[in-house]
Amino acid sequence: EHLEDKKKSLVEIFPLITQLQASGKRASATLYSGFNGLLTATFNILDRLKEGEEYYMVNIPAVQPETHHTMWEKFQMIRDEKKIKGKQLYSPKVSDEILKMRTSHKGLDARRMPIDFQSPPTYYFVYKDVTVIALSQGTTPLAIEIISQEIADGFRAYRDWLWKQSKPFKSVKK
Q1: 4 or 28: whose pLDDT is higher?
Q2: What is the value of pTM for the model shown?
Q3: Sheet of strand 142-147, all strands in order from the earlier edge strand to the far edge
Q4: What share of residues in the chain are helix, strand, coil (percent, to 5)?
Q5: Under the phi-then-psi rule, with left for phi > 0, alpha for psi from -120 to 50, and beta for the rest, what region is 112?
């Protein structure tokens, strides 16, 4: 009899739970580990965005391992073919040489951040409803991919403020 009462209660509440799940905003997170994990999280951008859509990266470290530069060139080649746009904010300490190389890619705008966070080499990128927090250096790079429109909108607002404070890169001619 007790089990029948519990069953009846569950049957009554099940439609409400289903309705809440359908209307609720859900989030998910994936942890990527190692350089290949970082590659996967980064290249997901190219799988999820369509022509004309845009991604943003913020607080990219001034100095990165050489393997990152190789990955970067491949990423840019595919991004350009797919006509995906990108905006990137680098550490204020990034060299003119790196920024010149980054801004040479069609459809990509790279700038220096207006402030130096003095943080560990952590950056984030945001597109659609996806935010990725990347800890790209050290013995085991990590990337945490969060799929949530609310979280992406929050990071996007922060990025908008930083972008408005930054200035377009102009190389210094000698």
Answers
A1: 28
A2: 0.78
A3: 28-33, 142-147, 130-135, 122-127, 54-60, 85-90, 108-112
A4: 45, 25, 30
A5: beta
